[in-house]
Specification:
By secondary structure, this protein is α/β, with parallel strands linked by helices. It has helices spanning 18-29, 31-38, 70-73, 91-100, 110-127, 143-150, 165-177, 181-191, 199-202, 205-219, 238-247, 308-328, 371-381, 411-422; strands at 7-14, 40-48, 65-66, 80-83, 104-107, 131-132, 156-162, 229-230, 249-260, 263-274, 286-293, 297-304, 356-365, 386-390, 400-406, 409-410, 427-436. It folds into 3 domains: 7-132 and 308-343, NAD(P)-binding Rossmann-like Domain (Rossmann fold, 3-Layer(aba) Sandwich), CATH 3.40.50.720; 143-304, Dihydrodipicolinate Reductase, domain 2, CATH 3.30.360.10; 352-436, ACT domain (Alpha-Beta Plaits). Strands 7, 8, 9, 10, 11, 12, 13, 14, 15, 16 and 17 form an 11-stranded mixed β-sheet that branches. It has a 6-stranded parallel β-sheet with strand order 3-2-1-4-5-6, with helices on both faces. The longest helix is centred in the last third of the chain and has 21 residues, at 308-328. The termini are far apart.
C-alpha cells in the first residue's frame, strides 16, 4: 500500500531506442521495488524521440510521447532528464539546456563526456545540479560509483579495462575457434554484437571514450581525448593468437591507464596478458575493469558491459541516487568526477614513444642462413633484448615466421628497429608487434 504524502519525482527521457526501451521497462516492472528502496515515487512524465510510432515492445501511454525535446527540457515540473540519444549533437545542446534549467541529468553517453565532459560538469557545478553517468562505462558494472564512493580514500595507481563487448567477442572467437578477424566480424554482425559499420568498436574508439572517463575519475585530471593512443584489433591475425597461446598469453583489446612520476599513460591497443591473469578469463561480450589503489590493492569488477537490460539497470541506479539526494536534500554531495572542481588538474599524458613495456615481435622472412643473426643484430643496436623465441619450420603466406618475446624496451626503439628490419631483402612480409602487460601494478 502506498504511503500518503510520498514525494513524487518526475523524470523525462530523451531517446526511446534500445536503452530507452529498457529504462521504460524498469519503470514499469520494478516501480514497487523502487518505492520501497527510495521512499519516493518516480514518475516517467515524458518521453521524447523523433520516432514515436514504432512498436518497442513496451506499452506506453501515447500522451507521454513527444517529438520535441523542449517539452522535457522546458517543463518546470520535471526534476531529472535522462539523455540516451548518443553522439555529440544534439545531445550536448540538450544536456546543457537541461542543466541551465536546473534539472539533474543522467546520461549513458560516453562519447559526449569524453569530448565535452569538462564543459558539462562545470555547467552543472555552477547551476548546483548533479550529472550522473554510471552507464557510460562498462554498462551494468558499477565501476564509476565504486571509484567515486567505495574506493574514494585510495590514490589510484592504475586502471586496466576490457571495455568493448564487440571486440572481446571477436577476439574470444578467434582464440577459441581459430577463425580470422574478417570471418568472426561477419558472424558478430549477424548476431547483432557488431554494428553494420563497426569502426568505432573494432578500431578502439569506443574503448578510448570510456578510458578518458576512467582517467578523469581515477586521477582527477582533464583528459585531451586526442592524446589517448588508440589502436584497434583489425590487424590481429589467428596466427598471432596461436603464437600468443604458445608463449602462455591471450590477446585482449585493453584500455590502460597508469600514473607514474606525475604523468599518465593513456593507451588503448591489443595487448598480450598472461593466461593466469583474471582479465584473460573475460570472454565473449563481457567487460571487466581492474583498479589498483594504494590501500585496497587490486580490485576487479566484471559483468555485462552493454545491452538493453544491464545499461538500463545502471541508468536507473543513477536516477535513484539523484532521487535520494532530492528526498534528503543532498544535491551535490559527491562531485561529478569524485574530486572538487577546484582540485581537478591537467596532468601530462606520456608520449607513446616513451612507453616502456615488453613486446611480441613477428617477422616473415625467407628461409636461408643468417637471417636470424641480421634481425637480432638490428634489435640489439636499438637496445632490444630477446627473452624467448619460436621459429616454426612451416611457411605462412610464402614466409617463414620468426617470433620473439622481448624484455622491456622503449616504444620508439621498437618502431625504429622494425622499420629497419622491414627494409631487409630477407624480410618478405610486414613485421608485426603487440605490446605485453605482464605486471599490472
Amino acid at each position: 500500500m502506498e504511503r500518503e504524502g510520498m514525494k513524487e519525482i518526475k523524470v523525462g527521457l530523451l531517446g526511446f531506442g534500445v536503452i530507452g526501451t529498457g529504462v521504460v521497462g524498469v519503470f514499469q516492472q520494478n516501480a514497487r521495488l523502487i518505492e520501497k528502496r527510495l521512499g519516493a515515487r518516480l514518475q516517467l512524465a515524458r518521453i521524447a524521440d523523433l520516432d514515436i510510432v514504432r512498436d518497442r515492445g513496451v506499452a506506453v501511454d501515447p500522451i507521454l510521447l513527444t517529438t520535441r525535446a523542449a517539452d522535457i527540457l522546458d517543463d518546470p515540473e520535471i526534476d531529472v532528464v535522462i539523455e540516451l540519444i548518443g553522439g555529440y549533437e544534439p545531445a550536448r545542446t540538450f544536456v546543457l539546456k537541461a542543466i541551465e534549467n536546473g534539472k539533474h541529468v543522467v546520461t549513458a553517453n560516453k562519447a559526449l563526456l569524453a569530448l565535452h565532459g569538462p564543459e558539462i560538469f562545470a555547467a552543472a557545478a555552477r547551476r548546483g545540479v548533479d550529472v550522473f553517468f554510471e552507464a557510460s562505462v562498462a554498462g551494468g558494472i558499477p565501476v564509476i560509483s565504486a571509484i567515486k564512493e567505495n574506493l574514494c580514500a585510495n590514490e589510484f595507481l592504475s586502471v586496466f579495462g576490457i571495455l568493448n563487448g564487440t571486440c572481446n567477442y571477436i577476439l574470444s572467437r578467434m582464440t577459441n575457434d581459430g577463425d580470422d578477424f574478417a570471418e568472426v566480424l561477419r558472424a558478430a554482425q549477424e548476431l547483432g554484437y557488431a554494428e553494420a559499420d563497426p569502426t568505432f568498436d573494432v578500431e578502439g574508439i569506443d574503448t578510448a571514450h570510456k578510458l578518458a572517463i576512467l582517467l578523469s575519475l581515477c586521477f582527477g585530471t582533464r583528459v585531451d581525448f586526442d592524446a589517448i593512443y588508440t589502436e584497434g584489433i583489425s590487424g590481429i591475425s589467428a596466427l598471432d593468437i596461436q603464437f600468443a597461446r604458445q608463449f602462455g598469453y591471450k590477446i585482449k583489446l585493453l584500455a590502460i591507464g597508469k600514473m607514474a612520476n606525475g604523468a599518465i599513460e593513456a593507451r588503448v591497443h591489443p595487448t598480450m596478458i598472461p593466461l593466469n591473469y583474471p582479465l584473460a578469463d573475460v570472454d565473449g561480450v563481457f567487460n571487466a575493469v581492474r583498479l589498483t589503489g594504494d590501500f585496497v590493492g587490486p580490485v576487479m569488477l566484471y559483468g555485462r558491459g552493454a545491452g538493453m537490460a544491464p545499461t538500463a539497470s545502471a541508468v536507473m541506479g543513477d536516477v535513484m541516487a539523484i532521487a535520494r539526494n532530492l528526498v534528503h536534500g543532498g544535491v551535490g554531495r559527491t562531485p561529478a568526477l569524485g574530486y572538487l572542481p577546484s582540485a581537478i588538474d591537467e596532468l601530462p599524458i606520456r608520449a607513446m614513444d616513451d612507453i616502456v613495456t615488453q613486446y611480441y615481435l613477428r617477422f616473415g622472412v625467407v628461409d636461408q642462413p643468417g637471417v636470424l643473426a641480421k634481425i637480432a643484430g638490428i634489435l640489439g643496436e636499438h637496445d632490444i633484448s630477446i627473452a624467448s623465441m619460436i621459429q616454426p619450420e612451416r611457411q605462412v603466406g610464402g614466409a617463414v615466421p620468426i617470433v620473439m618475446m622481448s624484455h622491456e624496451a622503449r616504444e620508439a626503439n621498437v618502431r625504429a628497429a622494425i622499420k629497419e628490419i622491414d627494409g631487409l631483402e630477407v624480410v618478405n612480409a610486414p613485421s608485426r608487434f603487440i605490446r605485453i602487460e605482464s605486471e599490472m601494478t
